[in-house]
Structures are given as C-alpha cells and as structure tokens.
Recover the amino acids of this structure.
C-alpha cells in the first residue's frame, strides 16, 4: 500500500505562511494558501509566500492537484492565493461562505479571476479517487472558520488549524464537537492541532465577554470614539456596532482592509447594522463628535495605516482631539511593539485617553484555544497520532509535553517534523521519508522572488553602517588616483568627515600602488574591499559596505 | 527669590537615558547619567547618550556643577558616565557602595580615571551654598538602590527613581519608609516618582518569591542547567547560587557583563558563595553535567551574547544537549522579541527544555512598583507636586489618572513636561520657563555624535530598497553615456536583473540628453535622482536610493 505524504509548504516553525500538501500517489490535496510576515531582518520585504517548488515538481512529474481547501479567512491562510495560483494549473478551491468571500477579495485586489466554491458543513465531499473531505464548524477570531476532516486511503486526517472552543460565540455557531465526536468514532489516524496558545492554561474567554467591556469603555466619552482592531474580526466589529446602537452613536469605517471586510461580511449577512447607524466616512464633519464612533484600521500601529496617520495628525478625514478616546481592541503581534507603543505614547502625550489590553484586559480576547481547549479537542478526537501546528517551535514542544504527553501519547506518537521534512503516513506508522529545501519567497513591491538571501543580507549590512563607493578612473591602462571620488551614504555625516575621506583615499591609493601591477582589476577590487574594511574597522569600529568601481576610459 | 530649574536631559518620553539637571542660580546638581537603547529605527547605533549641550552652555556662562548623584547601578542610570564625563569639568560624584562599584567598572572599561564617593543612607550631606542631599534605601532589581532627597532653597525635592516596595528583600534591606515619612514631615515640595509599571494594580511580587520557583525548576534536571538573567540582578544571582547549594550543583558564570558584575558585587560583600560552590568557567568539562549550573549573559537573546552563541552551537565553552534545561529568568524588554523568541525556538527545536516567564510566571519578578506601591509612596510623601518619571508617555498619563488624581491631586499639581521643557520651581508654583532642543547623541563604534538624523534616515532607506550608483564619465565636457556604469547593493539580485539595469541606463541617458545642456552638473544629478526614482517606482514599486556620480576627466 502506498503512503500518504504530508508536507507543510510554509515550513513548520513559522506561525504564518500556512499551506499544507497532502499527496497520495498521483493525487495532491492542498489546504490553505497563506502569506507570512517579514521581520526586522528582512527590511523592505512586504510579504512572504510559501515555496511551491516541490509542488510544481510533483505536478511536472504527472501529479494532479485535485483541490485546495481553505480553513478560514485570515491572510496567513488565504493571502498567498493571488501570488501562487498564477503559477499552478487549474483546480477547484473550496471554502465556507465568508472564507470564500475574503479569498475572492484577495484575488480581485490583484485582478485574478478565479471562482471559489462554497461548501456546507458536515457533508463529505468526494474530490477524487483517493480524497474526500468535510468541514466542521469551529469558533475563532473570524466567522465561518472550519476544521477539515480528510478521508484518505490510509485513514482519516483531522486538519485542525486555528480555533478556540468559544462557549458563547457572537453568531451562535458553536464549535461542532458532536460532529468531531462522530468523526472520531469512525477512527482518526492523525490529528493536526493548533498549538499557538499552549502557554495559557485557562479556557480562553468567550468573544461575547468583550462586548460589555467595550461598551463600558465607550460610555461617557465627551468626544469621538476610535476603535482599532484586526480588520477581519467581524464579531468584534459587530459588538462595537451594537454598543454604538445602545449609546446612540453612529459608526463609520476607515481604512481599506476594514472597509473591504465589512462590505464583504455585510453582503454575506455575517454583519448586521441597525437602521441608520452607519455614517458615511466622507461626511463625518456633519456628525457631532459625541455621536460618532470610528472603527479604524491599524491596530498594530502600522506605518501608513489610517489610525497612525490620524494619531500623527496626517489623516484627511480623522482629527483626534483631547476630548476623544482611542480603544485598541487587539493584542500586539510580536515584532510590532515599537510602532504599537509609539502610537499609544503619542496619543498620551497629546492628552488623549487611550485604552489597550494591558490597561484593561477585558477589551480583547484571543481567537486561539488555550492548552485546556486543545486537550479537550485531543481527547474528543482520540486520534492515533498528533501533530501540533500553527505555533512556533516552542509552542509545539510545550504542546507535546503538556497536552499530548498528559493525554497519554508517548513522544513516538507526537509528530514534530522540521521544516521541509516530508512525512510518510500509513497504517504501520508515520515517519520522515524525504527532505525538501524550503525557501519562502519574498514579495517586494512588484517583484516576487528577486529579493533573495544575498540582497537581504546586503540590506542589513547597509542599514548597520552604510556604504562607501570608491570611483577609480583608469585611463589608457593607468589609474588616475588624483581623480578618485569617494561617495558614501549612511556612513557618517560627510560634511564633518573630511578626515575619514582623506584616510579612505590615501589607503585606497596605497593598496592600488602596491597591487595594481600584479593582479587583475577584479582581484584588485576585492583586495581594496577587504583591506580597507580592516583598516576602517581599526580606526572607527564600523563595517560599512565598500564598493570600488573602476571606470576604464 | 530665584527659581529652581529642573530639566531631564535624557528627555521626558524615554524610559532610559536618565539624567536630571537641577539648577539654582549658578549652582547645578546632576542626578544619574544613563544611556538609552536604540530601537530598530536606529540601525547600527550601539548606544544613545543624553544631550548635555544645555548643561555645557550653562557651565560656559559661569554655572558650576556642584555634584552628580547616582541613584542605582543600572546602565540607563550610570552607563553614560564614560561618554559624558570627559566633556565636563571636574565635580564630585556620590553613590551607594554597589552603585559606585558598578559605575567604577563602566569608567575602567573606557580607561577613565575618576573616583566615586560612597555615602551612607539617611545622612544629609551639604554640597554647596544651595544644595544638600541624603540617600534613602529602596528595593529594586539591583541592590543598594536609593531614592534621593534634595534640599534646595525653594524646598525639598524627592527624587524617586526606579523602585519597588519589596516586603521581603533578599538582603533584608527594606525600602526605608520611616525615613521617607520623616522627610515628608519636614514638607516636600515636589516628588518625582517611578511610573513605569503603573499598568499593574497588584503589589509587585517579592524577589524572595522567585528563589523557590527557580529551585523547583532546577530540581531533577538530568543535564546541565543554564540560567540567564539581567546581569546586574545580584539578588536573582544569589538565589540561583543558593538553589545550587541545595541541589548539589556547582555554579559558573559566563559572559562579560555577568562576570564583571559578580566580581564587583562579591568584592563588596553583596553576593555570598558557600565554600567551593564556584566553578572555573575554563574547566567546565571536569564537572558532571548534572552537577553544574551556568549563569550566562544574554537574557534578551542579544546577538553575540554568550547564551545565543551557546544556543546556536557556537560557544567555545558551553555545549547544550537535550539533557540540559535553560531557564530564562527575565522578561522581554520591548524591541527584543524577535531575538528572544528565536533563541527559545531554536532550543525547543533541538529538544532542549526551556522555561521562560510566559510558561512559569513565578521565575521572574519585576523590579518596579505597581500602581499600588506608587500610591503608597505618594501618600507617605504628601508632596505638594508630583511628577511621574521613568516611564513612557502612556505610563505618565496613566499615573496622573490612577495614582495622582486618585490620591487627590488635580492636574495642575501633576507635572508632565514634554521633552526639553525646563521647569521653574518656587513657592508660588511650578511652570515651564524655557524650552531646550534635546538631541540624544548616538554612539556608533568609536564615533560619538557623527551618526545623526540624516545618516540614520539614509540607513533606513538603504535597508528598505538598497542603493543604485550611476557612474557617469564626462570627458572634456561631454558625457560618455556608453561608458556609464550601474552598481547596486541590496536592490535586486543583479545577475537576474539585466532588464532593470538596461532600463536604468536608458532612462538616465534620456534625462542627460534632454537636460545636460541647460543645467549644472549638480542640478543634473538631482534631476536624475528624482526622475529615475519616479520611473523605477512605476515599474517595480520600490524606492532604492539613487546616487549619480559624475567623473570628470
């Protein structure tokens, strides 16, 4: 019997960039297609997308993609669609209504025409000879989130990406544990389980607990209220709208992502507005400040977001005054601390009241299961094997210990593959059968993949000590050292650096005089680079990038 | 009657870079002399130091620095000494024993010979005609921390920098609230109070609660134990040493900052070792892993620190195995998240057990007072005016609301000066009487202050999209466009960028052909920069720095 192959294309150690490949013989099933977020070590990079070269190789060798399934509408699960679909053959894509709506938005943004098929829950859908699947309702920080049961020739796989077990969800749609149980009763070979929030051991607060806390913060505000939140968090938005209705405020939406998501969710009846509550963002001046609430994008303090422009007085529509109150109804995503706190500090310095979860924990609730809920799901599933996903390495390691081991799984039955490891699954067990090199591609401006490791490491070097360009004329085979030019950026303030420039010119001239006779120009350039770097470091303890350019005339 | 002037030289909005100037007529008293920590928007910068130009101006105009007082031994209070003392006239410096010891270490590091005078607590010391001071014992995350009462002609100032009210400190030296009360009974005009941890409303855990939790984590470990912590946290180190004694482990210290601080603290009898417990770091191989604990620098996951080198298998002395356990007994300082978690993830991926405060809150306790303790101090002081310090703008704003207002102070009696505002203080009140421009100086390699705003903004631009240098030869007044050279770094991978280079050359040639006749070379360079940037952005949505260099022959 053949093995089922499983490879996370986004790598195993990253929380984002979710994309999973399941393969049985010549059939491939994909789950999710998400982007990753570059950190400070990837300056200038907008987005990371999973490496699909292994997938493309399989396709070239005759494999067929039978379908792609989308678990929910967050960008780290659907955002890579417009970048990757153009490089792949056609195949059907399935999702729940809101997930399909959000995915369709991502595609239209990049003018890609592709239909996503909406499928109901609890209905086993046959895809091909080997694969069928069904969706199971789960609660999370975006409505219409699903777990996926995949029937394969080797057994049932439970693909349990992002979830929580909210006991009082805003739309009343509970995580369908009865259906999980029904599937479990049929026997599950392997369960993939969201491990992100395994470091918390208390049942995650219900989303419905956040509404009353927000309403309390929104009461008795003299001026406008600004609420910033994750723009896909439709249930959070619904609760702010409901609070506005009670408090007699109109609500406006500002910021591309918020506006787009609100429009799509409304269209699909996932967001409900009392009559007349919506304000046109282009006519805010007509509404008294104490009758207005603005839901605004930028909850991470992102540069250029609507919130941040408003905070620094640069927004064409929103002017914040000391009468106003700003509510951050979102936690920091690690890496955004500097910008997030800078926005809060700027507001504080201008005497604007700001509330954020560190001040009032009740105004935010996570969308992820704590270890207690993870354990509940694991117990219900009774899968033979477990594989924590959706977390960093530290979360997967803790999951193994405090969820899996505690539930009776020994380490052999908990899979922690490293990035690029292909698991081979059959009734005899699961083991690593192949190793693939995964290099996430960087999207930078309009370029995809042309900013690689060398360019990024150059950018980091440039940022640390700048660049010195030495333009050295060579006329009829002889270097004209008197005409040498030194240009620098990001090194030292050049107007005050005559001494350093003189030093650089002198040392370069010395090197050329000693070496030029005996070596090629290319070797000479390398020699200048190396020697000058050493000499500069000695006198100034910095390592600017040194680029000699020989102009031959 | 003259006013007492007060100016925080490190700026009011930064948590670090603490340095305060008090001036009465021609006498100046300084408190603390700390460095600041650059964030990701200051790439390449090692350290920030306060701007003392106002101070130097006063000195030039005849003012005399009567003394500098140091509150405690953290680098954001003493680390700028070696950078600033050489630029100032001589004056006495006073501190408690350990603070003096640590300060002396900073000075010897940079080979600066200057004595620091050790003074006892609760003794009013006359400095000059107008100023006298006394130290009051306080608990914090470094021993020998003091608050300072400054007697001035306008009244008593209570300089209450970093503190907590630990009810069971490791060295038994409680915050001396009786002395605070005695001073308060004499009447305090203005109290400066540490506001950093105002967002917590529960009394900060005693440091002594951390020891048992650490001991529990250290029990039953099969291999070595590595503990990483703030290297100045002598009481934390003492507790790890004590736990080692109980568990029969030897303890070694690795990492320059840890080793230096341990040596100084031992010398001053602030750290006590049971006989024979210390291991020589150069003979670790002689000790069985299960009998060894290493206290290692690098608790923020800093690049190049001993811990991080060990984590990535690059340390000459420490090899970490899956039998070992690593304990992070420190919280993240905002901005270090990426490196901190990367170290933890790398250990987890290698099956090494890691514990950090998010997993076990009991293994760390803050050194700062919560709002409850701040309130306790404020109530005891009964000062006429309050001024929150040591926090960001958000903390100062919250302090005003939940500590000061709650204690009965109206906003007129709570001072929140902006950075550079000089307060004028007398019995009639306190108001802003001058405004100074403060520009923290960057220390970069061996340079102090030569990396200014322009260089930093260039570095940021370079990091985002790299640089394109256009070398354009001009021979006898005519541009030789065929010989033009394009060199780039950090832009795109040039081997795959023939098209882009051709585009750049073509567009540059076009601009030169149209413009060169009518404008100067300098204007031409500017035009090329601007026009080419625009054209490039259109086709590739990136903004590399463009540097045209005209080589005239």
């Amino acid at each position: 019997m053949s093995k089922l192959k499983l490879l996370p294309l986004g790598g195993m150690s990253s929380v984002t960039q979710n994309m999973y490949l399941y393969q049985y013989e010549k059939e491939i099933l994909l789950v999710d297609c998400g982007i990753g977020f570059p950190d400070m070590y990837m300056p200038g990079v907008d987005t990371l997308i999973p490496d699909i070269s292994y997938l493309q190789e399989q396709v070239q060798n005759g494999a067929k993609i039978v379908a792609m399934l989308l678990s929910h509408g967050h960008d780290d699960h659907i955002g890579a669609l417009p970048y990757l679909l153009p490089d792949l053959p056609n195949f059907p894509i399935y999702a729940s209504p809101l997930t399909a709506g959000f995915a369709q938005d991502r595609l239209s943004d990049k003018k890609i025409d592709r239909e996503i098929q909406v499928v109901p829950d609890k209905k086993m859908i046959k895809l091909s000879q080997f694969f069928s699947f069904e969706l199971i309702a789960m609660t999370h920080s975006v409505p219409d989130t699903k777990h996926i049961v995949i029937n394969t020739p080797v057994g049932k796989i439970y693909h349990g990406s992002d979830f929580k077990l909210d006991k009082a969800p805003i739309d009343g749609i509970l995580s369908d544990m009865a259906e999980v149980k029904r599937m479990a009763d049929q026997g599950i070979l392997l369960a993939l389980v969201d491990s992100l929030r395994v470091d918390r051991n208390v049942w995650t607060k219900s989303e419905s607990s956040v509404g009353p806390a927000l309403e309390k913060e929104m009461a008795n505000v003299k001026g406008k209220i600004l609420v910033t939140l994750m723009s896909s968090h439709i249930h959070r938005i619904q609760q702010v709208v409901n609070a506005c209705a009670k408090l007699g405020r109109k609500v406006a939406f500002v910021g591309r992502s918020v506006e787009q998501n609100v429009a799509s969710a409304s269209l699909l009846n996932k967001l409900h507005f009392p009559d007349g509550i919506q304000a046109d963002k282009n006519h805010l001046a007509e509404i008294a400040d104490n009758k207005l609430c603005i839901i605004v994008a930028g909850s991470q303090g992102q540069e250029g977001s609507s919130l941040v422009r408003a905070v620094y007085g640069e927004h064409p529509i929103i002017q914040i005054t000391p009468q106003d109150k700003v509510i951050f109804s979102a936690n920091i995503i690690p890496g955004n601390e500097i910008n997030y706190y800078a926005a809060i500090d700027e507001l504080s310095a201008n005497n604007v009241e700001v509330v954020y979860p560190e001040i009032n924990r009740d105004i935010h609730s996570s969308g992820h299961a704590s270890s207690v809920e993870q354990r509940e799901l694991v117990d219900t599933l009774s899968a033979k094997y477990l594989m924590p996903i959706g977390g960093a390495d530290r979360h997967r390691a803790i999951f193994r210990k405090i969820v899996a081991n505690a539930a009776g799984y020994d380490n052999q039955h908990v899979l922690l593959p490293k990035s690029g490891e292909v698991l081979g699954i059959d009734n005899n067990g699961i083991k690593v059968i192949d190793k693939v090199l995964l290099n996430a591609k960087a999207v930078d401006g309009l370029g995809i993949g042309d900013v690689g490791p060398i360019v990024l490491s150059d950018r980091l070097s440039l940022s640390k000590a700048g660049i010195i360009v030495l333009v050295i004329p060579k006329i009829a085979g002889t270097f004209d050292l008197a005409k040498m030019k030194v240009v620098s950026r990001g090194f030292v303030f050049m107007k005050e650096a005559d001494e350093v420039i003189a030093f650089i010119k002198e040392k370069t001239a010395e090197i050329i005089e000693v070496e030029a006779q005996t070596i090629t120009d290319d070797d000479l350039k390398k020699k200048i680079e190396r020697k000058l770097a050493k000499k500069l470091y000695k006198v100034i303890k910095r390592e600017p990038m040194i680029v000699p350019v020989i102009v031959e005339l």
